[in-house]
Write a structure and sequence with these properties.
Helix content is about 5%, strand content about 45%. With about 280 residues, the chain is mainly β.
Length: about 280
């Protein structure tokens, strides 16, 4: 039986409870200790924030254990020039926090505006990775780009952004990523990034504006020494990604993708608005 939906359609998985559990792991200021919570941020008004000014705007905490230590990533706004949302990572070891990133933004100087949001940490094959979105102005075009880096110790991170453009079936415009590396089309606004490990492979997903927001999924090629392409598309390389509605002329956008694993198979869930005109035939 065919059905049409005029309201928001949500893709549900039997494993959705796994995503909820994973989301609960993002803990901004304390770590679980038995059945109680113990503050490990110094219990100060500024918490772990770096700038210590009243204009801080704290977003997107992500916490994870790696090599016996605990890491926290977040973004904070500062009025110091250039005033933008800075991406920070700190490490908790032996009872104290230390800087593990400096300013991790792709554009730390703010030359291209450089507002970072939605960081997420994941451990893959014994290494620590981070993904985030960053607003930028490039060639007079405002967009939000997806970036990935791998931790190399101290405050050093290795960029895993592609410099190789995908083919024209994926992009509206063939872009020169060597000028501004990222995972998505540099002229297509992207957001809601996630990293996930399934069956020994690292995947990244996000939504990207191509007439409407579409879910894109790529897999990591497993090496940080590739000359220009660290990632491979696994979403069919269609204009609409893995959206339910594959008609690029419809304004049916997707949001907040999540990834999960079951029996070594990768599953995706997201919210997708289905806009139906009275005379639209879903058949």
């Amino acid at each position: 039986m065919k059905r049409c939906f005029s309201k928001t359609a949500t893709v549900l998985l039997t494993l959705s409870f796994m995503l909820i559990i994973l989301g609960m792991f993002k803990i901004p200021r304390a770590w679980a200790a038995g059945e109680q919570w113990t503050s490990i941020d110094g219990n100060t008004a500024d918490g772990l924030n770096t700038t210590g000014t009243t204009l801080e705007d704290f977003h997107g905490p992500s916490a994870i254990s790696y090599n016996g230590d605990r890491y926290m990533a977040w973004t904070e706004y500062t009025d110091a020039s250039p005033n933008s949302q800075k991406l920070r990572v700190k490490k908790y070891s032996s009872g104290s926090w230390s800087d593990a990133s400096g300013v991790l933004n792709d554009d730390p100087s703010g030359t291209y505006y450089g507002n970072a949001r939605e960081p997420a940490l994941v451990v893959f094959d014994g290494e620590l990775y981070i993904i985030w979105q960053e607003y930028t102005t490039f060639n007079s075009y405002d967009s939000s780009l997806i970036h990935v880096k791998k931790y190399s110790g101290g405050t050093t991170w290795i960029s895993l952004d592609d410099t190789k453009s995908y083919d024209s079936a994926y992009h509206i415009i063939t872009c020169d990523k060597s000028a501004k590396p990222c995972l998505n089309d540099i002229y297509a606004d992207a957001k809601d990034p996630v990293l996930f490990v399934n069956n020994g492979v690292l995947y990244a997903a996000w939504v990207e504006l191509n007439g409407k927001y579409n879910v894109r999924v790529v897999k990591y090629n497993g090496s940080d020494t590739s000359d220009d392409s660290y990632w491979t598309l696994v979403d069919g390389n269609s204009v609409c990604g893995i959206n339910i509605d594959q008609d690029s002329n419809h304004n049916d956008s997707a949001y907040t993708p999540s990834l999960a694993s079951y029996n070594n198979q990768l599953f995706a869930a997201w919210v997708e608005t289905i806009i139906q005109a009275n005379n639209h035939n879903c058949g």
